[in-house]
Amino acid sequence: MINKRNVRLMTRMAVYEERDGVRDRRMNAYYRADYCSSQCLRTFVCSTIAFVLICMIAGLCNFESLMLDIYSMNVQDFLMQMVLYYLVFLIIMEAVTVAAALYRTKNARYRLNGYYRNLRKLYDSYKRKEDE
Fold this sequence. Notes:
By secondary structure, the protein is mainly alpha-helical. It has helices spanning 4-28, 32-61, 63-69, 75-131. The chain contains 4 helices and no strands.
């Protein structure tokens, strides 16, 4: 006889495996700190590329005024200002990345624990049926 409770439980588990299971297991393979640090390293590289591209686009948009003012501006102050903007940009991006990575790992562990609880329920159900 088909047990409806077990069928619902297996369906719920199969849906989880199809949607979030692969990503959650991949995330769970790391310690939380290792996962966050790998995401921060990825963010550092992408943020640096994005900042350079933003600066290049801003420079091209203001190319005429930049060429007129290049001889009268203090290049050292300009570079220090750009470094300061870069550091602020990088700190904001890294803070967002750490918060998102911690949130993702917390939710992934919660979902995996639910999956393992359902697996345990299914196992216990079959074990009880076997004992009868």
